[in-house]
Amino acid sequence: MLNKLSLSARITAILITEFILLAIFTVLLTSESISIIINNNSLLVNILIVVFLILSTATISYILITPISNAFKKSSLHISLLAKGIIPEEVDNNSISDLGKLNEEISSLSSTLNYYSKVINTIGSGSFIKDLKPLNEHDQLGIALVNMQKNLELAHHREEERGWIVKSIAEIGEILRQHNEVNELGDAVLRFLAHKIHAVQAALYTVSEEDENMYIMTSCFAYNRKKYLSASFKKGHGLPGQTAFEKATILRTEIPDDYFTITSGLIGDQKPKCLLLVPLMNEERAYGVIELAGVRVFKENEIKLIEEVAPIISRTIYNIRINERTKILLEQSQRMGNELKIQQEELRKNAEDMQITQEKLKATNEELELQIDKVNKTQKRMQLLLENASEVIGIYELDGAVRYLSPSVFSILGYDQEELMEREWEKNIHEEDLNTYKTFFNELTSTAHKSLTLQLRYKKSNGEWIWIEATGKNLMTDPAVHGVVINLRDITVKRKAETEERMRKNMQALSENSPDLITRISISGRITYTNPSIQYYTGKTPTDFIEKDLDSITETDSLVNEWRTLLETVKAEKSTITKECQIESPEGKRIMQINAIPEFNESVMESVLVVAHDITERKLIELEIQDKNNKISESITYSKRIQNSIVPNTDLLTKILPDSFIFYLPKDTVSGDFPWYMVKGDNIFVAAVDCTGHGVPGAMLSLVGCFLLNSVVEKNSNKSPGELLDLFDQEVNTTLNINDSTEKIKDGMDIALCKINLKKKELEYAGAHRPLFRVSKNELLEYKGDRWAIGGGTYKNQTNFTNYKLTIDKGDEIYIFSDGLPDQFGGPANKKFSPNKIRETIMNNRGMSMKKIGSIFQSEFDSWKGNSKQMDDVLLIGIKF
């Protein structure tokens, strides 16, 4: 044992110590701050290596040499030296035998240390050993050196990248200092950055000075050339706008296929693999965006370079714009300064001239003050006169615009002067007088010094209409006026008095010559006036009644009693009373229509004007007309009973066709439309007939049509509906024109005729102007009639009536109708009911019973017609099989 520790333990202690020292050294070398100093100072590297070797040697000596010395103390040599007094202590003899092994291990350790010393010197000199490996898996020192070299290589690589960035920032700083214009600066910066990071395309967007949310392309660089492109993005729109909005770098390596393609003679057509957008931030605001595109993915240090130069570029752009604005302001300031100097010189000269003139003006001021005082007094007097004048004086331009109005306009019309300036004056003229006023004004302006007068209605500020008299004179040639002068005077009272006087005279003249009995009775019951007609109705002259009280007149009791009753009624109700009465006259009994009209003075009723009109002859005529009307009504009512006895109703039709209805609504008491049916063997004939006109003429024609149709079908029931209509047309034309008079009867009728055979399940149809609607299998089909009527002569291009033959299925529905239903006006827009609404009602209610559908049609028709007048007779027949 060497000092109670084995040799292997000592060596292990040496290695551990060396490893600790090496680890400390490695940490120092890999520290970023210390590595910068070491890489720039090789002397410091050498000092660190020497310190490491000294520490290593001292450690080895302490751990290894000291135990050897202790072993030597116990050897025979040590004992003899000790006996001679050379050394005082003893050496352990048992340790001498280990010296040989120790010597071998020391030699091996020494060679290893020499190898690692060279390795450390090589690394310290800044070189790195390729394929550096530990001697074995237990070589902790070798492993530590390998890790140290890796860390140093990484630190060296980082320092190189950092140095590249620092150098690039310095270079771009120099570029930024060389330019003071944003576009030129953008071109230079993009060219430099594109070259530095091998970008094939670059663009610079700067914030618009007009709109801070808009970013405009300032510069564009691609394929080593400046590009003259233009683009703009709103903040948040597009990648540039998104970058500015988020204020953060955007790196895209997955580029859409349609973004753009790089075409080059060297690299062919390639799509970019990387797109980098960096915001130009300054004081938390994005002043712009740099966009770079490359055919390879940008390296981390290249991205970091762009991010570090972005704030510098942003501040430079901000400063350039500030400088540009400052330069503009400075130029403006200098220009204004020069102008100010010129103006100051002019002002100085003017001040000298002013001083001279002031002395002259001072002499005249006293005289002017006296004149002004006189003028002011005159103006005050004039102002008082104008304000209190009974007329409004106005001065007008040639185009009718008001230039001046006197202050009296407020007291007369209620307007301030400013309210009627320019063309506002004309807005208050009554619309019926406006054209007359314009003609009046045009005549005034046509001739100098011409004078005209006009009366018109004008609305005051309180809304009251008054009459004004306008007297105008053309003074355009007078330099003091240079306008059209119009004086306005309120003549409402005067005109009212003239009107009343004129009306009184007219009333007097009318009253004196009127056949009506006109009497005025005061509120106290005194007769103040009666016209000469009183003599016809009483046999007495007006003087027998005027200025007499009603109670004092004993004659003509019936007339006077009516006057008394009317006077009391009007006094109580204070409104006009109209009534009819009968009075005794020299000509016998007369029926009079009397109007008693109250007459007011302001709000107090003064008298009652009684106008009695003789309606005796009119009443006799009315009674005669009423008697004749009663007789005609009785005849028409009886005609209706006759027509109803001939025309079938729904009850008769349902006996042969159970599921059917007839909606029949004549316009008048009797009708020109009529439903018709006949049964012959297995055939059922049904028709909807619409004769020309309505009322009595239509009813008479319907009776002719009914009897003729009965006759034709009775004799020819085996024929088709088309053939029957041909025969029916001949019969009607023959019957209506049997006397061969020169005046041909053009009246006729429209018809829809059906022949139904339930056993054969067949239906035949023919029509004159009237269609047939058929619902089969939830589909509505329309069969149109021919375009000529029955009767009325022969039509142009008329041929035989068209016959339709149909097969009947169970559940089929048919509808035939006259034109009274579709032609009825009404509804929200006052339009016709129309065939379309008939179709719509049929389809909306298909499948229901015919009785229900008939009720729905009647309700729809009443609702559609509303308060409108019924236009024509209405007939609708529905049958379900």
List the uncertain runs: 1-5, 32-47, 61-65, 71-78, 89-93, 261-268
State the helical fraction. Answer: 40-55%
Please state the CA-atom Rg, rounded to the nearest Å.
63 Å
Strand-residue proportion: 15-25%
Instruction: Tell me the span between the first and last alpha carbons.
Output: 133 Å
Biggest beta sheet summary: 7 strands, antiparallel
Oligomeric state of shown chains: single chain
Count of DSSP-assigned helices = 20
Number of strands: 33
Provide the descriptors you would attach to this structure in a database record.
23% strand, 881 residues, 33 strands, 47% helix
Give a quick precis of the structure:
The protein is an alpha+beta fold and 881 residues long. It is 47% helix and 23% strand.
Folded structure, characterized:
- It is a single chain.
- The chain has about 900 residues and is an alpha+beta fold.
- Strands 1, 2, 3, 4, 5, 8 and 9 form a seven-stranded antiparallel beta sheet that branches. Strands 17-16-15-20-19-18 form a six-stranded antiparallel beta sheet, sandwiched between helices.
- Strand 2 and strand 3 form a beta hairpin.
- Helix 3 runs antiparallel to helix 5 and helix 5 runs parallel beside helix 6.
- It starts with 6 loop residues before the first helix and ends with a strand.
